[in-house]
Write a structure and sequence with these properties.
alpha+beta, globular
Length: 252
């Protein structure tokens, strides 16, 4: 029985990796830019949010607010704190990388392991900046969102609008939008995947450094909330499981 279960697991893993190769081969590299507004006002400074996918299947999202997320086909994920030159690296497997991918053949409504996207409904199709997109509605207990994704580009997120619940009144309040300003099917520059010169640190160390950066070195006025501390502990525990030796990665 145990041998049969192991065999089935191996078959499932092989099927997932084959699907990842087929899907990845069909997707074209791209780069996109979008600007963010909060309640109708421009948010952040510097360039727009830039995201893309390389022909290898690696993806990036660089946010002018000082953060970036890099994902690689081998399962590695990196968080970059670009204002601080710090990063955290989580090592995984190719199968785990596939699980976080949305599948183009499902109209971006399912994850790579076949699980449906939570709280999501297909609301229509539109062409934005000459690109075919699917419009997806997400309704959760705390927000109502609409996102536009490009199936031909691995379900790249190119536009979104979120209306957040106001916990004080129980009504929908502030609105965040991200408007696509540029989309191109082309290979992104390798600089978007680079993290040379960034110090590898634990998630809690990065968050603490971010807090001091945001308060210009003064630190928090009050002790950090217990719930936030618990989340940081969980993040650190996951980091130790995924990267027990504090290793790093510097690009493609």
């Amino acid at each position: 029985m145990v041998e049969q279960q192991d065999t089935m697991r191996h078959y499932r893993l092989a099927a997932m990796l084959l699907m990842a190769w087929i899907v990845g081969a069909a997707e074209r590299p791209y780069i996109t830019e979008r600007g963010r507004q909060m309640n109708g006002h421009s948010a952040g400074s510097g360039p727009a949010i830039v995201s893309g996918r390389s022909s290898t299947g690696a993806t990036f999202v660089h946010d002018p607010m000082g953060h970036a997320i890099l994902r690689f086909p081998d399962g590695t994920k990196q968080r970059l704190f670009t204002n601080l030159s710090k990063k955290t690296t989580f090592f995984g497997t190719p199968a785990e990388a596939l699980q976080v991918e949305l599948t183009p053949e499902s109209d971006c409504m399912k994850d790579g392991d076949g699980s449906p996207s939570v709280f999501a409904t297909l609301a229509g199709r539109e062409k934005l900046l000459g690109v075919d997109t699917v419009r997806i509605l997400h309704v959760t207990p705390s927000a109502r969102a609409v996102s536009w994704r490009v199936p031909a580009a691995g379900c790249a997120l190119v536009q979104m609008g979120v209306q957040w619940l106001d916990p004080a009144t129980g009504r929908m309040g502030s609105v965040t939008t991200e408007q696509m300003t540029k989309f191109e099917f082309r290979e992104p520059e390798v600089k978007w995947f680079a993290s040379n010169g960034y110090e590898e640190v634990t998630p809690s160390a990065a968050q603490q450094a971010q807090l001091f950066f945001n308060t210009q070195g003064r630190g928090p006025k009050q002790p950090i909330d217990d719930k936030i501390m618990e989340l940081l502990k969980r993040d650190d525990a996951n980091y130790k499981r995924r990267n027990p030796d504090g290793r790093t990665r510097n690009g493609l």
